[in-house]
Amino acid sequence: TQPHRVMGYHPQLSTTIWPGIWNPDWDKRFEERFGYDPAKAKALLAQAGYPQGFEFTLYLYTLPGLPEILDIGQAMALDFQAIGLKPKLVETEFPRVREMYRTRAIHGGLFPTRHAGRALEVARNVHKANDSLGHWYELPVIEERLEALSRSVDVAERKRLLREIGDHKFNEFAEIPLFWLYADAAVNPKYIAEYTFPGVITGYFTHLEYVKLAP
User: Fold this and answer.
1) Which residues make Cβ contacts (< 8 Å) with residue 82, sequence separation at least 6?
2) What is the Cα–Cα distance from 173 to 170, expressed in whole angstroms?
């Protein structure tokens, strides 16, 4: 587990586009905030009024380029059960889950996703309440900064706003940062001499401009 689980933020990919949006404090505090600690998890559940845990739905489906989701979800269920939670695994098709979160009909459930490592793109897609297709985690503190981003072209100001969105998500546990899977791209050396691929899974290949053809 590493700090770039702050969804859409990556210490290398994001800062290449927006230098300075990565907060070094996330690295220092990550283990204390999000580290693997079953005993602490049980204590926090009891403190929150759930000493016997609670039930929730874990939706599982396959996605192009990520067929391992079913196996990963089953492994995650074992970790949830180890701290007293009661996950209900529901194998379904992704369009059914997509319809639920687009219509705001999914509550108290978990589902896997994939996305590119671009902070602004992720925020626009899933953190906007009014004109977004993915209603996942929405609060005015993020909406206000996205609105300010749409009006500003100043690099320093945009960096500040994006870092503040990241700070909020990190401090308020907006996501459950479990792990990040990188994809490998296989190429035929007969045709491709080099392909610098960032390893993010989006359902299609990206960064094709970095493909170098074999002589």
Assistant:
1) 38
2) 6
Question: Is residue 214 within 8 Å of 190, Cβ to Cβ?
Answer: yes
Contact 90, 58 (CB under 8 A): yes
31-36-37-43 Cα dihedral, nearest 10 degrees: 90
- Predicted confidence (pLDDT) per residue in 173-187, tens digit: 888 777 777 777 888
Both structure tokens of 84: 């007293």
Specify the pTM.
0.81
pLDDT in tens, 53-84: 999 999 999 987 778 889 999 999 999 999 99
Q: Across the strands, what pairs with 55?
A: 86
Q: What is the dihedral of CA 26, 32, 35, 39, to 10 degrees?
A: -160
Question: What CA–CA distance (Å, rounded) separates 106 from 95?
Answer: 13
Block residue for tokens 């689980």: 5
* CA-based torsion, 198, 102, 90, 1: positive or negative: positive
Q: What is the pLDDT of residue 1?
A: 41
Instruction: State the sign of the Cα–Cα–Cα–Cα dihedral 104, 105, 107, 110.
Output: negative
Please list, in sequence order, all residues whose beta carbon lies within 8 angstroms of the beta carbon of residue 139, skipping any fewer than 6 positions away. 168, 172
* Total residues found in the chain within this entry: 215
